[in-house]
Structure formats: structure tokens, C-alpha cells
Amino acid sequence: MTVAVATNKSAFAKPYFPVSSSGMLRFATDTEGLFNDILNGVEAFERQLFTTASIKTISSGSITAPTLALHVVAAESGTADDLDTITASNNFFVVLKADAGDTITIRSGVGNISTPSGGSMILTGNRVALLWCQGSQ
Question: What does the domain layout of the chain look like in residue ranges?
Fold first, then answer.
């Protein structure tokens, strides 16, 4: 199947598959530019392409998360766990949500996860985290 993708910002007018270099990052000059476009309404977030949500169970503080996807993160045992490392593809994003009833602490500065504030993020209930992989961080 061949899909023609526009080479201007009209490429975002409807979802296209497969995601390629002609897709979402084509017009962003950097990670911050992409997020600014999404958050300021230049590129509609609801038009981003996601795979079907999958459950990832933390193992020794780590998960492997295919990118451009929503993942439900489950604790290794019990209902609380720390997430220190996410193996993901460079220059792509993942969206994480805690499994029902679990509390997941995304820890900055322990593995390969860094937050702007340097502090941890807690996923519980309906909270989600949009994480960007850049330079293996």
C-alpha cells in the first residue's frame, strides 16, 4: 500500500500510516519546537498516531517501550514501583499511564530519565506522562 504524504503542514490534516520522516517531526526544528507546536495548537495533538495501548511490567526499574505509543505501566510486584530506565527509540515519544490501582514513580537522574525540574513524576489514576527520547535520555 502506498500513501502519499503532503510535504507541507497539510500533512497533519489527517492521520497517515506508516509514520515516516515525512510525518510529525518533519517541521519541528527541535524537541521543544515540536511540543510548542502541539501545545499551542499549531499541530493538533489528537491527530498524532499511536499504537494500541500495551501493558509493560517494570523489571528491575526498567521497561522497553516501543515509541509513538501509549503504554500502561504495571508494578513488578505489589501496587507501587519506581521506573528509572526506559529503552526507547531516539527522537520519538511514548505516553505512559499507570496500571489501574498502581502508583509508578518515574525517577529522574537515576537511570536514563531526566525531567526539566530534576524531580520525580508520579503516575497514578488518570495521570499520564508524555516522554521524549533524545540522545538515549
Answer: 9-46, 56-133
